[in-house]
Design goal:
single chain, alpha/beta, Rossmann fold, six-stranded mixed sheet, three-stranded antiparallel sheet, globular
Length: 431
């Protein structure tokens, strides 16, 4: 009998065979007209530019088409334009006489790249309020994909306050607490700063100016306020294979589109490149309807103020940090003489902050709710609002905000331009 080849030789033969099969398949699929995932869908960083203060921000003057959702069949193909100030929408001129300005802060829920600008709830709300209030209204969309509460706070302090808004509205998303303790996420081209809770309850910024991170690294904020590396050889290898090989392969493109028919399998494969603390999840975004949430203490049962990830890893407690960030933003907005509103996208998000502290600070917090099924308001394979969803949110926001905005507008700028003067009120005395 012939002696068996050494294990290394057999593994090398297996690798060479697989490489040959893969090469033949790659050539065949490309000849048949198939393309790679990378060449079809919009990149996660589309319209982003490195920002030493924020990590990333919109590139002023950028324009293009946002297409997705990857790797599912294309559902949206929306034109996106960024103005010279780095926010989505038309240019922002000087404030008109009698104008009411609203500034929306948040992440992809606010940015709404899945629809055209005039189809976002921010743009629709602007038109609706202008008709109902009979005065100029400007609703500014300062949402940026991937932003946490910390980046919204930095943006407002450094740039947003210069827009002279009368009302600032922060839209809280369910992934904000995790984003607030994340410094760099694998596959994301840019890192970000974070805030550490000081012993006196204050907020100390960490990681500014924001450095350059390796694409497949993963960093989070440690419990003591220091950055900690949480990636592993396995996650780095999986990320490398995806970003440098699979994303550029027509063979993998065919495989990914086949697996995309099974969302849970797709999510599993994507999570292979992320440490457990930063893994993605599928959730529902706002439907509509607004209600004032009743005060309650934050946290999960048995772990008040601490996330599941924090119990397993030495990272900062995201829930209390998020509460402090909201309080800090509200304080900055009020110091500028503007009103502050906090909007939650889901009922479950109420467990992510200490609502007792929020209530004690006098912050107006409202919960977006709806009786409509999510499939009517969201893209089928994407958790973001579709065109109907944006219209629905805009209408219910208008219903909820119109009375108080009318009062705010009168207090700040008087009656609507061109409105007939109101008759003097009689004190009951006879002439």
């Amino acid at each position: 009998m012939r002696p068996r080849p050494p294990l290394a030789a057999r593994l090398a033969l297996l690798g060479a065979s697989l490489l040959l099969v893969f090469g033949v398949a790659e050539v065949a699929f490309r000849l048949l007209g198939y393309t790679s995932i990378y060449s079809v869908y919009s990149k996660p960083s589309l319209f982003w530019v490195h920002d030493p203060q924020l990590g990333w921000s919109h590139q002023p003057g950028a324009a293009g088409v946002y297409l997705g959702p990857r790797p599912f069949p294309v559902e949206f193909e929306a034109p996106v334009e960024i103005n010279s100030l780095g926010v989505r929408g038309p240019e922002i001129g000087p404030k008109q006489p009698g104008e009411l300005r609203l500034l929306f802060l948040g992440d992809s829920v606010v940015a709404g790249f899945e629809v055209a600008n005039d189809e976002t709830f921010v743009a629709i709300l602007e038109q609706t309020l202008a008709r109902r209030l009979r005065r100029p209204v400007r609703a500014i969309n300062a949402g940026v994909r991937g932003y946490g509460t910390d980046q919204s706070l930095i943006y407002y302090r450094e740039r947003g306050r210069k827009l002279d808004a009368d009302v600032v509205l922060l839209v809280h998303s369910d992934n904000d607490p995790n984003d607030n303790v994340t410094i760099h996420k694998a596959r994301r081209p840019f890192g970000k700063p974070a805030f550490a809770l000081a012993p006196d309850g204050g907020l100390d910024v960490v990681g500014q100016p924001v450095p350059t991170f390796p694409l497949c690294s993963a960093w989070m904020l440690g419990a003591s306020g220091e950055p900690i590396d949480i990636d592993s050889f396995g996650t780095r290898l999986a990320c490398f294979l995806q970003t440098r090989l699979a994303d550029h392969s027509a063979t993998f493109g065919v495989f990914a589109r086949t697996v995309a028919r099974f969302p849970n399998a797709t999510l599993f494969l994507k999570n292979l490149t992320q440490p457990a603390e930063q893994r993605e999840h599928r959730g529902e975004n706002p439907g509509a309807g607004l209600a004032r949430p009743a005060p309650r203490f934050a946290g999960l049962p048995g772990l008040p103020g601490v996330s599941v990830a924090s119990a397993a890893a030495p990272v900062a407690a995201p829930f209390q940090l998020t509460t402090s960030l909201i309080l800090g933003l509200a304080e900055s907005v009020r110091a500028d003489g503007a009103e502050f509103r906090l909007l939650f996208t889901k009922g479950g998000d109420l467990r992510q902050i200490d609502l007792e502290q929020i209530e004690r600070a006098g912050i107006d917090a409202r919960l977006m709710t709806t009786q409509l099924p999510p499939k009517l308001l969201q893209w089928r394979n994407d958790g973001h609002l579709n065109v109907q969803g944006h219209r629905h949110v805009a209408e219910l926001l208008a219903q909820s905000l119109t009375p108080e905005l009318r009062k705010i507008a009168r207090e700040r700028s008087g009656p609507p331009p061109g409105a007939a003067p109101r008759p003097p009120q009689s004190d009951g005395a006879k002439p």
